[in-house]
Write a structure and sequence with these properties.
Largest sheet: 7 strands, parallel
CATH class of the largest domain: Alpha Beta
Structural class: alpha/beta
Number of strands: 20
CATH architecture of the largest domain: 3-Layer(aba) Sandwich
Mean pLDDT: 85
Bound molecules: adenosine monophosphate
Distance between the termini: 50 Å
Low-confidence stretches: 443-477, 574-586
Shape: globular
Number of helices: 19
Strand content: 5-15%
Strand order of the largest sheet: 3-4-2-5-6-1-7
Number of domains: 4
Length: 586
């Protein structure tokens, strides 16, 4: 491939896919996409070394979708992932990119989901299956998964599958799928065991690895903040309002749509902000840059492409709101600060799943990143109060207030209030747009955690590995309560999630053991980064509720169970298949 790929339109993808990519707001292919898509379209096997966050899902999904025969409803591609959450995410990604492919169907298949539901869904047929190894093995054994038309097999996060003890299952699956298929293997690291799988099951694979030379950026202090996507806006607000030496910031996001959305949200929170993306005309872009230079705006939300070459000396902070695809993009981004010999600050938001990228960046820049402790809501409030007081003092010093003195005097005479109370009421009115008492939407933000090291096979003693078969045995405990089977479940939230390395069976075990609620009364469980949701009966006995809210811990973490409000938004994982029972607020 000698041609450099800068646009999705250069990749020979069908129009329906290009239209979907435009709609999701992707501007350019990420390096791993530019490198992998052409050989995958040409039918080569690919061995890709790529972390989460590089865009690897689209790198394999787009060629599969390009080649899919919609008329044939038996599985043409099988994607194996280590966890059920990843299966759901990958399936959602397929669905998103296929929104203009009529009749396209992707089916996630994972352990813990009802077998009979899965059997029915498989019977109905799907073009792509995404699943965890244990359950896929079950279906191959039962002959409920017809792989005769399979053309592509993807092993996603192969080193994770190895770490979790699934590699024998993966080998078994590879041995039970048609030989004449394309095999794609993505892994964040390449331990020998993964290389052996590649050697055995791939045909002259193209090895793809995006490398960047080490670059020094010594005048820039680099910090990271581990955070999940839902909390990023809150974290950004806190940082923008409390950072010392703040002058102006550039906030990097991944998509054009995100530049506009985030700029709007920051504006609503009282910041002077502009968006910069590849859809804007040159003239518009120049205007935003000019506004940033002369101080009309202090924050610009940009994509990588739009911020290329941006040189504004007053940018004191670069915030990587969404992680860059690779170290080269990272170095380029943070180079927007620390200009003209000044010092700069770079802050990287990183989700639990993206942690590996941190090490990769550290290696590429030769610098260690500091963990950033998010400023508390109180610190934000203190800052706002200080600014407010300063504003009042400046107004007292510079404005002619005679007319307003009369208004206040009349007010005092006509009410029972004294002047302090009148002043307090006016302060209240003045702060309504930007409340002095900062209320975080995320009351208990987790403290930053040190990143995990590289996950090497030998770092995990055998007994720490999860059991090979995925479906956790549901604990048998003494059941203390009977609930009405006809009353639908409702959702509760608990403050433990992926970063605490929990599994659904830990949640079932904790609830059942600590309260005596039978496991049959525990419904759908969804794990998120630092919290989870679990369905339970609506009328939990007060003593059980109290135990779960205040005393129960999983892996040393208090779970602090509470019922989710009817209008409380919880992002996907989207539910596929039928829920076990209909929820009250659906
Ligand atoms: P992945 O590494 O596949 O988990 O992707 C990480 C994130 O990057 C996902 O949120 C994708 O939606 C997003 N993404 C993937 N490719 C692109 C692209 N070319 N432009 C912008 N965002 C992308």
């Amino acid at each position: 491939m000698t041609q450099t790929i800068e646009q999705f339109s250069q990749l020979q993808l069908r129009d329906e896919i290009l239209a979907a990519l435009r709609e999701v707001g992707y501007e350019t292919p990420s390096p791993i996409q530019a490198a992998c898509i052409p050989p995958l379209l040409a039918g080569y096997d690919v061995l890709g070394e790529a972390q989460t966050g590089t865009g690897k899902t689209a790198a394999f999904a787009l060629p599969i979708l390009h080649k899919v025969d919609l008329a044939q409803r038996s599985p043409q591609a099988l994607v194996l992932t280590p966890t059920r959450e990843l299966s759901l995410q990958v399936a959602e990604a397929f669905q998103r990119y296929a929104c203009h492919l009529p009749g396209f169907h992707v089916l996630p298949v994972y352990g813990g989901q009802s077998m009979s539901v899965q059997l029915r869904q498989l019977k109905r047929g799907a073009h792509v299956i995404v699943g965890t190894p244990g359950r896929i093995m079950d279906h191959i054994e039962r002959e409920s998964l017809d792989l005769s038309a399979l053309r592509t097999l993807v092993l996603d996060e192969a080193d994770e599958m190895l770490r979790m003890g699934f590699i024998d299952d993966v080998q078994w699956i590879l041995e039970h799928t048609p030989d004449l298929r394309q095999t794609v293997l993505f892994s964040a690291t390449m331990p020998d065991a993964i290389r052996r799988v590649a050697l055995q099951h791939q045909q002259e694979p193209l090895e793809i690895r995006i490398e960047a030379p080490t670059t020094t950026v010594s005048t820039i202090r680099q910090r990271f903040c581990q955070i999940n996507n839902a909390h990023k806006l809150d974290a950004l607000t806190r940082i923008l309002e409390t950072e010392e030496n703040f002058d102006a910031a550039i906030v990097f996001v991944r998509t054009k749509t995100a530049t506009v959305e985030l700029a709007g949200k920051l504006e609503a929170r009282g910041h002077s902000v502009g968006a910069l993306n590849g859809d804007m005309t040159q003239q518009l872009r120049e205007r935003v840059i000019e506004q940033l230079k002369n101080g009309d705006i202090d924050v610009v939300v940009a994509t990588d492409v739009a911020a290329r070459g941006l040189d504004v000396a007053r940018i004191s902070h670069v915030i990587n709101y969404d992680i860059p695809y690779d170290t080269e993009a990272y170095v380029h981004r943070i180079g927007r600060t620390g200009r003209a010999g000044r010092e700069g600050e770079a802050i990287l938001f990183i989700t639990a799943r993206e942690q590996r990228m941190l090490r990769v960046i550290e290696r590429a820049t030769g610098q260690k990143m500091e963990a950033l402790s998010l400023p508390s809501p109180q610190a934000v409030a203190d800052r706002r109060v200080a600014q407010f007081c300063q504003h009042v003092q400046e107004t007292l010093a510079s404005e002619d207030l005679d007319f307003f003195l009369e208004v206040v005097t009349t007010l005092e005479q006509n009410t029972d209030a004294d002047l302090y109370e009148v002043a307090a009421a006016l302060a209240f009115l003045a702060q309504r747009e930007r409340p002095l008492r900062y209320e975080s939407q995320v009351p208990d933000m987790p403290p930053p955690r040190a990143p995990r090291g590289f996950l090497r096979e030998d770092r995990f003693p055998r007994e720490d590995r999860p059991p090979r078969r995925e479906r956790p045995p549901r604990p048998r405990t003494e059941e203390l309560y009977d609930f009405d089977e006809n009353v639908p479940f409702v959702r509760y939230r608990i403050e433990v999630g992926h970063i605490h390395r929990i599994r659904p069976k830990d949640i079932v075990g904790a609830i059942a053991n600590e309260t005596g609620i039978g496991s049959r009364y525990i419904g759908q469980i969804n794990l998120y980064e630092d919290y989870s949701t679990v369905e339970l009966p609506p009328e939990l006995p007060p003593e059980a509720l109290q135990i779960l809210a205040t005393q129960t811990r999983i892996r040393q973490q208090p779970i602090q169970l509470r019922r989710l409000g009817d209008d409380e938004f919880v992002p996907p994982p989207r539910r596929f298949g039928k829920p076990r029972r209909r929820r009250e607020h659906e």
